[in-house]
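ok so I'm stuck.
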Amino acid sequence: MPQTKKRSNCLISNSLEIIGDKWSLLIVRDLMFKKECTYGDFSKSEEKIATNILASRLLNLEENGIITKEIHPENRTKFLYKLTEKGINLFPLIVEINLWAEKYYPVPEERKEMLEEIHKDKEAFTRIGMAKLRE
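replied:
not stuck anymore, here's the structure
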């Protein structure tokens, strides 16, 4: 599996090479909340990702071990994308981004319940969320 070329030995820089653009994290977000997606599912997101960008980011995430691509069990012309263990381990980061954003931006209705659960017990929310992604 090819690895992204590193600019430095900085851990943050190395991580941002893989997940540092908004599209990659939005793909990860979609997989965390939907568990699996097809190319078409991603292309229908409200953020309106261009098809060339989507293809590039999916390939990068796959090459760096964040996601896997499998033939769709119901349609052999489609692929299903899923998080790997490395991708699942981004769950706490996504939780923290949500908590940071909650302080500065309006919270959409569909995220309010999730944020309430995080505030009740962040560790339990994270542990349970990661376990569900592993199922």
